[in-house]
Write a structure and sequence with these properties.
Blueprint lengths: L7 H12 L8 H9 L6 E7 L4 E8 L2 E7 L5 H18 L5 E5 L8 H18 L2 H8 L6 H11 L3 H11 L3 E8 L2 E7 L1 H5 L32 E4 L12 E9 L4 E8 L9 H7 L3 H7 L6
Helix pairs in contact: 1-4, 3-4, 6-7
Length: 297
């Protein structure tokens, strides 16, 4: 194929237009097969396997490429996203190397080029599986909560975390996704407006505790934990006004030993950061995980 796209978004949009975007979930296996046969080095095998702690692998063999996903993963949504992620590596990066392995474990020896590849593959997977125009239609004029975003996850056959992240990509609201384990934040993802108003967690090498007064910290289940409970915004973000309240939602994943928390805050004017601190503040901890060699769960 001549004049191939060169960016994650361009590839995803090209494939959506060519193979259709009106039926969900997207059959990413079929797309991987059909697009690769147009290449001189096609994907010849897509299969599950026991690959330990890895989520997925892409490797070149004499007659083509093998795409392998971890079939011990119980979540169909995670598997589907992994296949799309590895397809992203195939389309975007196969001229650069012949072996890719993608894990949720910390890979502290990654170089900056490898970190960018993982971010590119994630961007491709999210865009091909959850086109923004369709996603916007699903949540238009609706009060967004965990139940609605879970329905979107089922529509696109992705994990709940992937569904929330994609919503945060385009929402005009101040929203923050927090993934925690054992009372500490593993990573977070803030919307653009949330970042501009400092509703984010500054990256550091130190661990960040879940606030004791938050819903995320509670050991007992709450009847409104999926639709949201209100609490002072300062419980999570000390720079918020004293009279401002946010809506906190959570899902406790016993299977993966994680707490998935979604925070939705009222609107406010952007924080006037000075030039020296602006770049630091407008970076979420998910991106910093990628930059520092950590592929978040």
């Amino acid at each position: 194929m001549k004049n191939n796209p060169t960016t994650p978004g361009a590839w995803a949009n090209f494939l959506s237009k060519t193979w259709g975007r009106d039926r969900f979930p997207i059959d990413v296996k079929l797309i991987a097969h059909d697009i690769s046969v147009c290449q001189t080095d096609p994907i010849t095998n897509i299969q599950g396997g026991d690959i330990g702690e890895l989520e997925g692998m892409l490797l070149k063999r004499d007659k083509g490429w093998y795409l392998i996903y971890n079939d011990h993963v119980q979540s169909r949504g995670r598997i589907n996203f992994t296949i799309a992620h590895e397809l992203g590596h195939y389309l975007l990066h196969r001229k650069e190397q012949e072996f890719f392995q993608c894990s949720t474990a910390d890979l502290l020896d990654w170089g900056s080029t490898a970190r960018q590849r993982e971010a590119d593959a994630d961007k491709f997977a999210a865009t091909i599986l959850m086109p923004l125009d369709d996603y916007r239609n699903q949540v238009e004029s609706a009060k967004v909560d965990i139940d609605l975003l879970s329905a979107c996850a089922e529509r696109y056959e992705v994990s709940l975390v992937a569904s929330i992240r994609q919503w945060i990509e385009f929402t005009p609201q101040r929203a923050v996704l927090v993934v925690s384990r054992d009372g500490f934040i593993k990573w977070s993802w803030s919307s653009g407006k949330a970042l501009r108003t400092r509703a984010r967690f500054r990256f550091s090498q130190e661990t960040v505790s879940i606030p004791e007064a938050s819903l995320a910290a509670q050991t007992m289940r709450h009847p409104n934990e999926r639709t949201g409970t209100e609490l002072p915004a300062r419980v999570w973000f000390k720079d918020e006004p004293a009279d401002m309240y946010l809506r906190e939602m959570r899902v406790v994943s016993d299977q993966y030993d994680l707490v998935i928390t979604l925070l939705v805050l009222p609107d406010r004017d952007p924080w006037e950061a000075n030039e020296d601190e602006e770049d630091e503040h407008l970076v979420d901890t998910y991106t910093n995980c990628i930059r520092n060699g950590q592929l978040p769960t």
